[in-house]
Design a protein that fits this description.
The chain is α/β, with parallel strands linked by helices. It is built from 13 helices and 14 strands. Strand 2, helix 2 and strand 3 form a beta-alpha-beta unit. Helix 4 runs parallel beside helix 5. InterPro entries: Epimerase_deHydtase (IPR001509), NAD(P)-bd_dom_sf (IPR036291), NAD(P)-dependent_oxidoreduct (IPR051783). This is NAD-dependent epimerase/dehydratase domain-containing protein.
Length: 336
């Protein structure tokens, strides 16, 4: 392993960007956070002396190059609305052109299991075929193919090295886009847990803060580049068990509102995001479970948070947010 220069987090304001930034900061490393709007970046990173805040326009080649100027490594976390996945490949194409022109040496895409399609058997290693049967899977596959094809691309005396780090579904404290967030919110607010069904099929989740130290390590591991890697969770768990543990922490009997594929189709008539969830529902009925023994062999043992501990952290954060919200509303009501 070797030390590296400044790392840039493109699309930094989301949950993954914040946990990776925390790991970089904990390692005493300077980093740059890049996003479309300054306000959310200031809110998330303005307190950290290691952070440099930069805004960009990912549709403008000059803006991409300027955002990447002086960086040694770029970590790509740029999201798009769930009903606009066709934007992923063209966004990636422009970004790769910009970072190459800027002389960036390393590029990491935080990826998903979508490009695999259905698992032939579980757990799967990196040699599993990438045969997506969904539109979203095909767009993600096109995106990561662009990244892998850019490995070795030269700009002047600099050659770009690339890798894809593939994650399962994630969860953690106050992560709104997590499949499990409706469980923690429901328990914290004294309501039913809102979940997508089926709820009794074992599923793999990763506690999102665990990815930060792994990504920080990969930024300074030259041998990791030129391929994709898996980072797995701590085995599998059913959503029903997550609900049971969470509501036990709340001291309440577990209650759920389950939206299965049929309900998603009905809701999708009125909500485009719900409509988009239908094609990916196969991941709940036929989960993809990752084997990350190759990554462990490369970088050594990986610290992972148990489901019991992760669920407790996520619920406590949701309960604290709920009590703060109640207090704020109370003050507002008195003022009125």
């Amino acid at each position: 392993m070797q030390t590296t220069g400044t790392v840039g987090l493109f699309g930094a304001a989301g949950a993954a960007g914040q946990v990776i930034a925390a790991a970089l900061s904990a390692a005493g490393r300077d980093y740059r956070v890049v996003g479309r709007s300054r306000a959310p970046l200031e809110a998330a990173f303005g307190h950290d002396p290691h952070a440099q805040i930069v805004t960009w326009n990912p549709d403008d080649p000059a803006s991409i190059k300027a955002a990447a100027a002086g960086l040694q490594t770029v970590i790509y976390l740029v999201g798009v609305p769930y009903d606009q996945f066709a934007a992923h490949p063209p966004l990636m194409e422009k970004t790769l052109a910009g970072v190459t022109a800027a002389g960036v040496e390393r590029f990491i895409l935080i990826g998903t299991v979508y490009p695999y399609g259905r698992a032939r058997s579980n757990p799967i290693s990196e040699n599993h075929p990438r045969e997506p049967h969904t539109f979203k899977g095909k767009m993600r596959l096109a995106q990561e193919n662009l990244v892998l094809a850019a490995h070795g691309r030269a700009s002047g005396s600099t050659r770009l090295s690339t890798l894809v780090l593939r994650l399962p579904d994630f969860y953690g404290p106050c992560i709104e886009r997590s499949l499990l967030n409706g469980v923690f919110e429901g328990a914290a607010h004294g309501k039913r847990a809102q979940v997508l069904g089926p709820v009794d099929v074992p599923h793999e989740f990763i506690y999102l803060p665990d990815i930060g130290p792994v990504v920080e390590t990969l930024t300074r591991t030259p041998d990791a580049y030129g391929r994709w890697w898996h980072l797995a969770g701590t085995g599998t768990i059913t959503q029903r068990e997550v609900v049971r543990q969470t509501f036990a922490l709340a001291g309440r009997e577990p209650k759920m509102m389950v939206a299965g594929k049929t309900m998603l189709r009905v809701l999708g008539l009125f909500n485009p995001i719900m409509r988009e969830l239908v094609e990916m529902n196969y991941l709940l009925t036929e989960p993809v479970v990752l084997d990350d023994s190759a990554l462990t062999k490369l970088i050594g043992p990986i610290a992972k948070t148990s489901y019991e501990e992760g669920i407790r952290h996520a619920f406590n954060a949701a309960r604290e947010a709920a009590s703060m919200s109640t207090a704020t509303h109370g003050k507002t009501a008195k003022a009125a």
